[in-house]
């Protein structure tokens, strides 16, 4: 459980916002950043697949364009996204499973980590 100390908050607006957060945590679960990120990874897939186990081509195109455009250069180029989808599709069923989608998330997380640390994770 997160600790709250609102006594040092200066404005009424900050107090209201802190109170709103406390109420929200009391009513709902109050996940930390890591838990939120994992939930987002899962719900983003499920929203794009309409709750199904696999993403079809158009679902994958939409997910990449809408949700990953900030991390990927070619996210709005349909042919590049199609190529990426084929690269991820290890069982060649023409669809992207959750596991195949996680490969993409892992790749992006690794690229982000490398860009932040200035190193390649593959180098030992
Ligand atoms: Ca597949």
UniProtKB/TrEMBL annotation:
InterPro entries: EF-hand-dom_pair, EF_Hand_1_Ca_BS, EF_hand_dom, S100_Ca-bd_sub. Residues 76-111 form the EF-hand domain. The keyword Metal-binding applies. One of its GO terms (molecular function) is calcium ion binding. Transmembrane segments: none annotated. GO terms for cellular component: extracellular space; perinuclear region of cytoplasm. The keyword Metal-binding applies. Keywords: Calcium, Metal-binding. This is EF-hand domain-containing protein.
